[in-house]
């Protein structure tokens, strides 16, 4: 299998280096393209937090398409080095931070930034996505108004999670990948949409 590529934008067509070993959850070009078709032009000028950065494919795609800032987190040095290499090859490093840290520790800190998107794609089958979404639910100041939290998992990992400050508003399945979308409810809108046909205009 060839290395994943940047699909669109300023770095279109550039191949990304993979992380050595099996510590990451790769995203296919099909899923990545579908995700950014959903987000559309709202990615322009946005900020994104990639909690389990891996190769950096999601954040780099966002930057290539016009996002203003991405912060990549990963616990593993091999992933951090790979993200840095991929940012350099795509000439997008000036708009990103890459931090080696535990995502769960990070989410428990006092927020110092409000992100428009948070992407959660942790190692599979360890219930880590539930832990991450619960921490965000408990510390929602990490999120800008109308922010989206997007979870990438195998469909067999999905289960309902009791949340207070976030609501799930859609799911999209692409083969063995499920994307689950969450946001903060708008208290002024009692008929909040249950799908993403009309993304929040403020993103």
Describe, in short, the structure shown.
The protein has 203 residues and is α/β, with parallel strands linked by helices. It contains five helices and seven strands; from the N terminus they run H-E-H-E-H-E-H-E-H-E-E-E.
Radius of gyration of CA atoms, rounded to a whole number: 16 Å
Mean pLDDT over all positions: 89
The number of helical elements comes to 5
Low-confidence stretches: 190-203
CATH architecture: 3-Layer(aba) Sandwich
Report the end-to-end length measured between terminal Cα atoms: 34 Å
Q: Remind me, CATH topology?
A: Rossmann fold
Strand order of the largest sheet: 3-2-1-4-5-7-6
The CATH class is Alpha Beta
Number of domains: 1
Helix percent band: 10-25%
Annotated CATH homologous superfamily: Vaccinia Virus protein VP39
Coarse shape: globular
N-to-C SSE string, H for helix and E for strand: HEHEHEHEHEEE
Biggest beta-sheet profile: 7 strands, mixed
How do the strands and helices of this protein lay out in sequence?
Elements: H1 29-39, E1 47-50, H2 57-64, E2 69-74, H3 77-90, E3 96-100, H4 103-107, E4 115-120, H5 128-138, E5 143-153, E6 167-174, E7 177-183
Parallel strand pairs: 1-2, 1-4, 2-3, 4-5
Antiparallel strand pairs: 5-7, 6-7
Question: What can you tell me about this protein's structure?
Answer:
This protein is an alpha/beta fold. It has a single domain, classed as Vaccinia Virus protein VP39 (Rossmann fold), CATH 3.40.50. The chain is 24% helix and 23% strand. It has five helices and seven strands, in the order αβαβαβαβαβββ. The chain has helices at residues 29-39, 57-64, 77-90, 103-107, 128-138; strands at 47-50, 69-74, 96-100, 115-120, 143-153, 167-174, 177-183. The protein has a seven-stranded mixed sheet with strand order 3-2-1-4-5-7-6, with helices on both faces.
């Amino acid at each position: 299998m060839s290395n994943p590529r940047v699909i669109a934008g300023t770095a279109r067509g550039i191949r990304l280096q993979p992380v050595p070993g099996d510590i990451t959850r790769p995203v296919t070009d099909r899923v990545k393209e579908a995700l950014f078709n959903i987000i559309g032009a709202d990615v322009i000028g946005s900020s994104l937090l990639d909690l389990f950065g891996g190769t950096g494919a999601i954040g780099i795609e966002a930057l290539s398409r016009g996002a203003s800032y991405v912060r990549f987190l990963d616990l593993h040095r091999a992933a951090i080095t790979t993200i840095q290499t991929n940012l350099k090859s795509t000439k997008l490093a000036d708009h990103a931070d890459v931090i080696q840290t535990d995502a769960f520790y990070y989410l428990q800190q006092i927020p110092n930034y409000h992100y428009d998107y948070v992407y959660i794609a942790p190692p599979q089958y360890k219930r880590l996505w539930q832990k991450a979404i619960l921490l965000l639910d408990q510390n929602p100041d990490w999120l800008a108004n109308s922010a989206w939290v997007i979870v990438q998992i195998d469909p067999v990992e999905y289960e309902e999670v009791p949340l207070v400050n976030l609501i799930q508003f859609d799911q999209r399945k692409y083969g063995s990948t499920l994307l689950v979308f969450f946001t903060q409810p708008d208290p002024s809108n009692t008929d909040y949409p249950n799908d993403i046909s009309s993304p929040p205009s403020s993103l």
